[in-house]
Amino acid sequence: MTERLITHLRHVDLAVPDLASQRSFYTGQWGLTEVATDTGLSFLAAEGSPEQYVVRLRQATDKRIDLIAFGAATPADVDKLAQTLARNGVKLVSEPGAVVTPGGGYGFRFFDNEGRTVEVSADVALRAHRKVEEGESIPVRLSHVVINSFDPEGTVAFYERHLGFALSDILTHPRMGNMMWFLRCNDWHHSFAVARCPHPSLHHASFEMRGIDEYMRGTGRLLRAGVEKIWGPGRHKAGNNTFTYFLDPQGNTVEYTTELERLDEDTWHPGLHDITDPAVSDQWGTANRMDEFVAAKSFNDPDRGLFLAPPV
Q1: In the sheet that 253-257 helps form, which strands lie side by side, from edge to edge?
Q2: Cβ neighbours for 219, distance < 8 A, ≥ 6 positions apart
Q3: Which of 43, 105, 306 is nearest to 96 (CA)?
Q4: Whole-model pTM?
């Protein structure tokens, strides 16, 4: 097994044609806090997270994932991972060096097998965060990011081979085969997942709430505000986490969740979960049915940034 040098998920960076509406949504409705700005950029933190920011927005002509960022324990681990990737033929976008975004640190970027930009960094300064209080319906942290892949088997193999991610569970369909793979880089059931799709894109980004009450309050607050709900509220079987999915102004799916399962990695064995079983999608039976409408929204628009590193 590949040595795991990744410790956790840091942030997801999105390029959007309308920065103003996106910034307004994430700060005014979703519950993130803008902590820094630059020309055409907005850095958004979760109040309960020590990460400098969990979402970065960038004004751009094309909608895309700019990058997905992960943490490493030390600069030495960053160097080791960069050297191993380069030796194995992975295309580096930048060599290890100083990170120039809020919090600084030491990191590098590379393209994954389908051309997404991935960043790995260490020694990023911790943000002065706070405890999210009882009843506060705002995100505590970025829980996980799920991507759509035209070649999901190849994408899963890339993250397992090169980054040491481990498989937690698979969603499967009796006719269409395996549909989603949940991958972990620590003892959370998943920090990253890969879904089968006609094209690479963002499937969804998920934000953890303080607890069930705060999760439901947040869900209700967005519904009252008229934000389009795609799916939920309910509780998945794989990961055992709650879910409500909404669309942001640019058509990206974002999720409120809580109680994602933590695993004993020494004893855990991946399971195959049949998504035609209603209890797999939603143990509670409270969510709307997973149908073609929900699936189509989760496909998102094709990512326009493959093998094109973001300018920042």
Answers
A1: 229-235, 242-247, 253-257, 201-208, 141-149, 192-196, 177-184, 166-173, 271-274
A2: 229, 232, 233, 244, 256
A3: 105
A4: 0.97
For 141-299, CATH number out of 3.40.50.1240, 2.40.30.110, 3.10.180.10, 3.10.450.50 equals 3.10.180.10
For residues 11 and 69, is the Cβ–Cβ distance under 8 A?
Answer: yes
Considering only CA atoms, which of 287, 280, 278, 281 is closest in space to residue 233? 287
Which class does domain 6-122 fall in?
alpha beta
CB-based burial, 40-62: b 16+ in 10 Å, e otherwise: ebbbbbbbbbebbbbbbbbbbee
Answer whether 218's CB lies under 8 Å from 256's CB.
yes
Q: How far apart are CA 132 and CA 143, in angstroms?
A: 15
Reported confidence tier of residue 294, pLDDT bands at 50, 70, 90: confident
Bridge partners (DSSP) of residue 264 are: none
Structure tokens at 258: 């809580």
Q: What would the pLDDT profile of 17-71 be if each residue is shown by its tens digit?
A: 999 999 999 999 999 999 999 999 999 999 999 999 999 999 999 999 999 999 9
Rounded CA separation 70/12 (Å) = 9
Copy the structure tokens of residue 249. Answer: 């102004």
